[in-house]
């Protein structure tokens, strides 16, 4: 047999293997219920034959950047209904030609200062000991980023995170170190525990719920992504974390790659929900990398949620949602359970949209 004949024979076998693998995936998806089928397909794809992986790799290399025909800018998107007033503040910056970085900082400062938003900043639920501790991160289009975790008695952790990014050689400061840095930068200490949050915490303790609990409803972080008139991306994420968490617990919100990620070549993503799930999967980095492979923001968010459903036992007991923005201004969002919504604002106006979800039913 000649060399060319051997090559043709090998290629034929690889093609047959690839076709059979795809047929098996289709059969599996058809045989399982919706949620289980999607999760199983996501899991099976992760262990695809080498021939299929090589084809996928080649395809990803050929489509490394999403290529919509038009660019939608400026635009700002954020998680949850409290993203509407946050977006309005960010839009004031963007509409005047300001930077995406300034926009996301100014935007998320709105819920940070609003005591009615019980999971962000001032008025946020305390940890199990009754202390309000805040987490935040910020990232620009050049991979510059800053973060704080377990910050106490400072109303605007996002601004402290930006100071970490711009005034130190570090990415993250935590606990007392973060507080001392904030005070050195002129931030003023104040009590963040409102009377309403204190009463709720006391009731929680009286009911014997001394065990920290993270459930479907306990997830209302704000994450914000913006694309400015110069085509630059930036993102911010800030939270008071899970209500009545164990003291010292840190979720995904201050972790670059988990709760937020920005890549100027591709796009940006932020997350909401049970932070441990995003940390285990480096969820926002995953979304951006899926976009790099050629998926649009909607598809990338869905694939990341499916990955979590497939890989993490009991994931359905919590909520997780992703929001993504491409460098072209395309928006996508997807969540595990219904009930997650996201806000968008651009030159055409402001909207609030319910995200598509994987599992049946809606979380109130």
Q: What is the arithmetic mean of pLDDT?
A: 83
Q: What's the helix count?
A: 11
Total number of beta strands: 13
- By secondary-structure content and strand pairing, the structural class works out as alpha+beta
* Strand ordering within the main sheet: 4-3-2-6-5-1-11-12
Spell out the blueprint of helices and strands.
Elements: H1 3-31, H2 34-46, H3 50-62, E1 75-79, H4 83-94, H5 100-112, E2 133-139, E3 145-152, H6 157-167, E4 172-174, H7 175-184, H8 195-206, E5 222-227, E6 233-239, E7 260-263, E8 267-273, H9 275-281, H10 283-292, H11 297-311, E9 320-326, E10 331-335, E11 341-346, E12 349-354, E13 356-357
Parallel strand pairs: 3-4, 10-13
Antiparallel strand pairs: 1-5, 1-11, 2-3, 2-6, 5-6, 7-8, 8-9, 9-10, 11-12
Helix pairs in contact: 1-2, 2-11, 4-5, 5-6, 10-11
What is the compact description of this entry?
The chain is α+β, with helices and mostly antiparallel strands and 364 residues long. The protein has helices spanning 3-31, 34-46, 50-62, 83-94, 100-112, 157-167, 175-184, 195-206, 275-281, 283-292, 297-311; strands at 75-79, 133-139, 145-152, 172-174, 222-227, 233-239, 260-263, 267-273, 320-326, 331-335, 341-346, 349-354, 356-357.
């Amino acid at each position: 047999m000649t060399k060319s004949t051997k090559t043709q024979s090998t290629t034929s076998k690889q093609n047959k293997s690839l076709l059979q693998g795809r047929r098996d995936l289709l059969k599996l998806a058809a045989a399982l219920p919706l949620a289980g089928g999607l999760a199983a397909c996501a899991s099976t794809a992760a262990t695809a034959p080498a021939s299929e992986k090589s084809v996928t790799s080649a395809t990803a290399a050929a489509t490394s950047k999403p290529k919509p025909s038009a660019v939608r800018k400026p635009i700002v998107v954020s998680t949850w209904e409290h993203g509407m007033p946050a977006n309005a503040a960010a839009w004031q910056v963007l509409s005047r030609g300001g930077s995406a970085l300034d926009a996301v900082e100014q935007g998320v400062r709105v819920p940070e200062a609003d005591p009615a938003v019980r999971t962000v900043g001032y008025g946020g639920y305390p940890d199990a000991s009754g202390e309000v501790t805040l987490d935040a991160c910020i990232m620009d289009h050049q991979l510059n980023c800053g973060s704080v975790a377990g910050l106490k008695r400072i109303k605007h952790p996002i601004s402290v995170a930006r100071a970490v990014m711009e005034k130190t050689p570090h990415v993250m400061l935590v606990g007392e170190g973060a507080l001392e840095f904030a005070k050195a930068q002129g931030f003023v200490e104040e009590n963040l525990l409102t009377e309403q949050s204190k009463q709720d915490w006391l009731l929680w303790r009286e009911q014997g719920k001394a065990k920290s609990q993270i459930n479907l409803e306990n997830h209302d972080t704000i994450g914000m992504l913006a694309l400015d008139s110069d085509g630059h991306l930036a993102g911010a994420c800030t939270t008071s974390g899970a209500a009545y968490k164990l003291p010292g617990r840190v979720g995904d919100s201050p972790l670059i790659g988990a709760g937020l990620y920005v890549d100027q070549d591709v796009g940006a993503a932020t997350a909401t929900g049970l932070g441990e799930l995003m940390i285990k999967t480096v969820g926002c980095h995953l979304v951006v990398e899926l976009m790099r492979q050629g998926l649009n923001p909607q598809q990338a968010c869905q694939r990341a949620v499916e990955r979590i459903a497939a890989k993490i036992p009991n994931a359905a007991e919590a909520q997780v949602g992703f929001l993504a923005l491409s460098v072209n201004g395309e928006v996508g969002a997807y969540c595990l359970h219904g009930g997650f919504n996201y806000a968008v604002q651009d030159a055409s106006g402001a909207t609030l949209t319910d995200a598509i979800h994987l599992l049946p039913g809606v979380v109130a």
